[in-house]
Amino acid sequence: SYISDFGQNGTYSLGKGGLDINGSAKLVNNTFSKIRTIAFYSNNFTFENNIFNDSLIDGSYIYLVGIENVTLNKNYFYVPTNTTNKDVIHIENSTNITIKDNNLYIIGLTVNGLKTVFSKNLTVYNNFINATSSQKPIVFLYTNFSNLSYNNLSATLVIMEFTNSSSNLISDTNLTRGNSNSFTLIDSYYNFISRIHINSTYGSISFTSSHNNTVSDSSLYANSIVLELKDSSDNYFDNIRTVSIGIGGNSTKIHGSSTNNKIANSILNTTRGSAIFSSAGYNYFINDTFNQTSNSVSGDGIVAVQWYLDTNVTYSNNTFAVNSNVTTYN
Predict the structure, then answer these.
(1) pLDDT by residue (tens digit) across 42-60?
(2) CA torsion angle 270 276 279 282 (round to 10)
């Protein structure tokens, strides 16, 4: 079907058919079943409060290509077991797209929740994506200058994957149940990651050939390696808490050609591995708390561990003493 404008409150059972949307329109409060693809080819479109509750036959549920100023808000997507190798929402060569308050429940194998390619200025806010099998809730390829915040994501394998994607903000997001490295950056630069919570049955964060990224104010739990840097340099980690409980599970693993990474003001906990494991480059641990007997530095690895003392002086009436001189010994 080719439709240039829609009504509201409809029910569509399209067999193996799909919809091409061309022209400014608004599609709200509809129910879809047995649909192949809704493809957007027009700007300034709102897609809101729609329900997909049956098989994704082939293609993507939602396909946006070469457009801008589109909002997908408060939609529900159910992807059953007989669906494979698809994207629920696919965005390509598009800008200024808002994905907000959507609920994706994915049972089908190897189905990505949200996949973006060669896009920018996306807002991904407060979405719930639960993938129960071999799926990735969020995949960014060549996608830049976007904001992902307040999302709740759960999957069996990788949960968030960024490849050749830079200058994105990822914040206030929960990632649970990943049976692989839950959050991965590959060939990506200048991303800012803040206030994320990862509870993984395998690894938490993995950087490969990624540089000048920042991670702050985050808690990372894993059975295996919590923070892995491979061939990655000039990254900064501030106020992170890592906990690794698996056998050989290291809080940090730095290898390949990684150098000049800084981990500061952080707590690095491990029960059956090394807090610091490094075999590459010259890397810094500044004002960190960790078990100083559970570390491994080998090969070409050099680790600089530094602590800096901060003091404040107050009078007995709890007012600050200005311009005080403090001398410390030993």
Answers:
(1) 788 888 998 887 655 555 6
(2) 160
The pTM of the full predicted model, rounded to 2 decimals, is: 0.88
Residue showing tokens 């480059």 = 281
Whether 12 and 31 have beta carbons less than 8 Å apart is answered as yes
What are 280's two structure tokens? 């590459």
Structure tokens at 40: 């957007």
- Token pair listed for 256: 């390949």
Decide: 88 and 108 in contact? Cβ < 8 Å.
no
CB 278 within 8 A of CB 301: yes
pLDDT in tens, 130-157: 988 767 899 999 999 999 999 999 987 7
- N-term to C-term CA, the chain: 79
Q: Interior CA angle at 104 toward 79 and 173, to 5°?
A: 145
Tokens 């029910």 correspond to 11
